Amino acid sequence: MPIAGWVIIGIVVVLLLFFAGTYNSLVRLRNQVQNAWAQIDVQLKRRHDLIPNLVETVKGYAAHERGTLEAVTNARNLAQGAIGKGVGAQSKAEADLSGALSKLLAVVENYPDLKANQNFLALQEELTSTENKISFSRQFYNDSVLGYNNKTQMFPSNIIASITRFQAGEFFEVEAPAEREVPKVSFT
Questions:
Q1: Which side of the chain, N or C, has fewer Cβ within a 10 Å radius?
Q2: Which of 56, 40, 103, 49 has the alpha carbon at shortest distance from 76?
């Protein structure tokens, strides 16, 4: 076989190895994004599970704050309903839930007996911990999406990504400036 034949075979082998390596890298990054989303989902479920207990505890002390309690419950239901409807829909629903929770926690400031209740304090601590975990999970998810998107959009891996139909991921972001405010969950 002439040298030109070996060169062509060598080039084809290198191209196949590059294609396989890039494809596997894209799969790994896509799976990392999916895992990061699953971690957010776990923390959001934990948050959703805490809210009914929080509302019931507050209800005993602040019965005339019915509108605020209903707003939190409705926001929780909408957030649970947004599960599986895409990152954007869930991001918006969770931002609405954060807003409703911050209003509820602001109302609690008017009830010193409630702020001293051990059950409420334990729930407040759980919620604070969960909010921190959600924040870290969102950051990891967005970092994972960034790495994946870079790989799907940068040359030459973008060619392989388009051939194999890898699509850019969606960031978990808050859109409205008012929603960007972190809800205060401290009662000290």
A1: C
A2: 49
